[in-house]
Amino acid sequence: DADVTQTPRNRITKTGKRIMLECSQTKGHDRMYWYRQDPGLGLRLIYYSFDVKDINKGEISDGYSVSRQAQAKFSLSLESAIPNQTALYFCATSDFTSVRQETQYFGPGTRLLVL
Amino acid sequence: DAKTTQPPSMDCAEGRAANLPCNHSTISGNEYVYWYRQIHSQGPQYIIHGLKNNETNEMASLIITEDRKSSTLILPHATLRDTAVYYCIVRALNFGNEKLTFGTGTRLTIIP
User: Fold this and answer.
1) Measured between alpha carbons, how far is B39 from A83 in angstroms, rounded to an integer?
2) β-pairing, A110-114 with A87-94?
3) Across the interface, do A90 and B102 touch by the CB < 8 Å criterion?
């Protein structure tokens, strides 16, 4: 979905380096999420944010941090990258206008390789 | 969230209806059935969701059995671009349940 963009799309880094993955959305949604996907493990939630002042840990937040700079921007940082953080990372937004109607919209993903 | 069971793979001829089944026998009364798909490592794409009644949108139809223990996603006229992994997700829409739990899904291959 072009309304959710992620940069970079591909990144190779070395163990111990700090890197940042960025996500921007033009959908006007308050809620934003970061997931990672590993082969055979589905998607796992890293962090999520319901608005600019709200940050919550997901199921695998260790080794990661986030920043919600604005409604439209949600960044994921790896403070000191390690090889097992090699994965496909997705940002998502959701339109929680009512409890019956929430859906999540995903960005194109960032493929990260940590050497 | 209740667990789901899907066949690992299916084939469908181009132009025919693709019917993807999902079992969710432990579903609770407040849990919705969601379908997403992922085309070759792209971001997952929302397709449809429902609670009790059958639902239809421009992409697909969702048929939920009366006891809600299973459902079927129907792509009415499959095209080659529908080749993807399809995920059936059961999810309660309440606070504290923000994540989507993707299982292994069904890999649907559309045959020319």
Assistant:
1) 26
2) antiparallel
3) no
Q: How near does any CA of chain A get to the CA of B99, in Å?
A: 6
Q: Does B42 touch chain A (CB under 8 A)?
A: yes
Digit-coded pLDDT (tens) for B21-46: 999 999 988 888 999 999 988 899 99
Q: What is the distance between the alpha carbons of residues B19 and B34, in angstroms, rounded to a whole number?
A: 15
Q: Cis peptide leading into A39, omega within 30 of 0?
A: no
Handedness of CA B41, A61, A94, B8 (dihedral sign): positive
Tokens of A38: 């590993």
Residue A109, min C-alpha distance to chain B (Å): 6
* Residue of B41, B45, B46 with shortest CB distance to A109: B41
pLDDT, averaged in runs of 10, over chain A (115 residues): 88 96 94 90 88 91 95 96 96 77 88 96
Cα gap A86→A83, rounded to integer Å = 6
Closest Cα in chain A to B48: A103
Cα dist from A12 to A17, A74, A85, A86, B59, whole Å: 10, 21, 11, 9, 36
**Biggest CA pair distance of chain B:** 44
Q: Which amino acid is at B12?
A: C
